Amino acid sequence: SLYVSEYFSQSAQKLSFYSWYGNAKLFHFRVPEDTVLLRWLLQASRGKGPECTNMEITVHFRYGAPPVINPLGTRFPANATVRPSYNISITLSSAVQNTTFVNVTTPAAGDWFIAAHLPEAAGRIEVKGFSTPCPYMFQADMFVLRLTDMPVLEPGVAMPQTIVSPAKPLHVKVFVPKHAAGMRFELRSCITSEQKACAVRVVLGSVTLPQSFQRIVTCAGNVNCSLALDSPPWEKWLQIMVESLGAANASVSVEMLASFTACRPGSTSSFLNFSSLNQSQTGPRPGSAGAAGSSTLSTGEASRNVSSQRRFCLQNQPVVREDLDVVSVRYRLLNSPSVPVNSLSPTLLLLNLNTGMDSGGSLVVSLLLNKTSVGLANATVVACVSAASPVLSLNATRNCSTAFFQGYPLSVSTFSAEATLIVLYPQTDDWFLSLQLICPKGQGECNAAEAKVTIFAYLTPCFNDCGPYGQCSLLRRHGYLYAGCSCKAGWGGWSCTDDTKAQSVSAQNLATLLLTLSNLMFLPAIAVAVYRYYLVEASVYTYTMFFSTFYHACDQPGVAVMCIMDYDTLQYCDFLGSVVSIWVTILCMSRVKKILKYVLFVLGTLLIAMSLQLDRRGVWNMMGPCLFALVIMIAAWVYHGVKRRHCYPSSWKRWVFYLLPGITLAFIAISVYAFMETNENYYYTHSIWHVLVASSVAFLLPPRDKHKKPWAWPQKLTCRYQICQNDREELYAVT
């Protein structure tokens, strides 16, 4: 045999602490056909700084679709099917780098996915630039060993083969045709080169994770052994591995034979299918002759097909796949939304999910039983959703499983007429929905009965659009798209249905009121600025108060939300107003000439607007203007002090009752904003930030110029001649 090794690699990704599925880093590989050995090379590394500590990385594996994981232990939505993912842990302790190998023998060909993440996130809100997080990197590489000349076992034809040694197992493959109800594999004429008892092990099927359904049989002696499979995967190559259990230097000769049991499908005529498709596309008017004719034809044909359906092992129902959007598909039955279900043969629907881009959503199947259509009160319609091949023996065992797949069962009856199934991240394959009528006292009781079941099947990015407390996000890894739910207001779970830590409506209202009404603390600062003739500064504070109030009213995660304009616009205006308020306050304290002050106001505002557009959450967008304004203020104060030959400002009352309290409030506000905010306490810590910053502005604004009189509205409104007053600016008049 000729083996070929291949190597596939993807770029490393920076890992994140886990709070939702978007934090898991996804790797997508495609295993080629005839692969006999798969080896994953997993490399994890961390930075060398003091902020880097020991860390445990969790790596999940799955065949056919991204892994369904639940690191937080939250609840999944009702009716969702969840099977634990296969995962391993990689520990980064004293070593900076860790290399781990994972081997898979005879892996299934197709899509394989790896997801890696760090432990649960702490929930602390970190200001970008104040702290340097430790970088944890992860990279996955794939090595495959592929057999280029794998022998093909033809159905019904015995094939002799020789196992050279136990170290070199024999690999063959057989193609499973469509509508194969069963497969029988036989191993006979087992002879060893040493004329001893023959001992071999036969493995049918490939390894899939998290669950593997390989069928294994051990054959000993010269007795023929066989293995029967129900519902093998249709239109796929099935790998068969035979390995010797005898002596190391003994060869084994065997003869293999594979045979299939065919299933004869029945379906409605193609003329009806095209007629229904044309009717659904053109949409005839209700009551028109064409619509009435089609309806009469369908009804008559259905009545004539009742007897003919009993001669087939299954009844196909035509289904049209309608692509709506990315990871969004609707399946529509051509003849009618409801299908007839009897007890003699299962009714089968094909749900095509093999495009390679359908595994990143959720498959939803809903059944609704028409209670008036069932002739027996105790009858039950049993359904099974399976991949690769359908379940054809629902009436015998009620076991929803095929040869290599454990399906998902459903049932409806007159007591429970509705049933829903949610398959999270369905693997890439052809999916089948099988339905059959079951009677408690035997199938003879159901021969004359027929049930009508309405079926709704669709693929959606996020089930129920993540609900009212979640946001459905479309994620991307290279060209592969998948969806995940980001939950809010304490809600959790795959579809944001877990209310274990959810905020009540009263708590949401309280959070909204605190974050919005705390901005009213800018009113004293605005009043002080207007009283002291700082009208430009008062306008900036009014702008900040307005947009901060409505930004936080729109930013709420729950139901207490009000957005007066686009969210991104409100956020930008809030950030801009906050930084510009600090900028104009410090420049006002510097007491420079008016013309210079207003020039700095305009230039600083333009530069701040530019920097916020580049990086809205960067710490230097706030610290940069603050530090530059502080340098200008200190330089101006030093200049005034040297010129006047004493400390500036000269009044101790100004320092004790205004400057020191204002500076203290500002430092406390910065500390709360940078080091104390978390996701849980955000609504009151950020409200404290609003109160402290607005209060500090009221304390830090300098007094008005001495030559300016207080506001006197009657005097301002009097129409008379006035003696001109010299408005020379006094730079030293500070109390």
How would you characterize this protein structure?
It comes from Cochlearius cochlearius. It is a multi-pass membrane protein. It is found in: Cell membrane. The chain is an alpha+beta fold and 735 residues long. The protein has 4 domains: 3-147, Jelly Rolls; 157-262, Jelly Rolls (Sandwich), CATH 2.60.120.380; 313-460, GOLD domain (Jelly Rolls); 505-700, Rhopdopsin 7-helix transmembrane proteins (Up-down Bundle), CATH 1.20.1070. Helices cover 27% and strands 33% of the residues. It is built from 11 helices and 33 strands. The strands form 7 sheets. Strands 7, 22, 23, 24, 26, 29 and 31 form a 7-stranded mixed β-sheet that branches. Strands 20-21-25-30-27-28 form a 6-stranded mixed β-sheet, with no helix packed on it. Strands 1, 2, 5, 9 and 11 form a 5-stranded antiparallel β-sheet that branches. A hairpin with a 2-residue loop joins β22 and β23. α1 (270-282) runs antiparallel to α2, α4 (522-531) packs antiparallel against α5 (535-554) and α6 packs antiparallel against α7 (594-614). Mean pLDDT is 84; it is low at 269-309 and 727-735.
Q: Uncertain segments of ≥5 residues (pLDDT<50)? A: 269-309, 727-735
* Major beta sheet summary: 7 strands, mixed
The amount of beta strand, in percent, is 25-35%
Radius of gyration: 37 Å
Terminus-to-terminus distance? 97 Å
The number of distinct β-strands equals 33
Supply the number of helical segments: 11
**Mean pLDDT value:** 84
**How many domains in all?**
4
Give the % helix: 25-40%
At CATH level 3, the topology of the largest domain is: Rhopdopsin 7-helix transmembrane proteins
Shape: elongated
CATH class of the largest domain: Mainly Alpha
For the record, the CATH architecture of the largest domain stands as Up-down Bundle
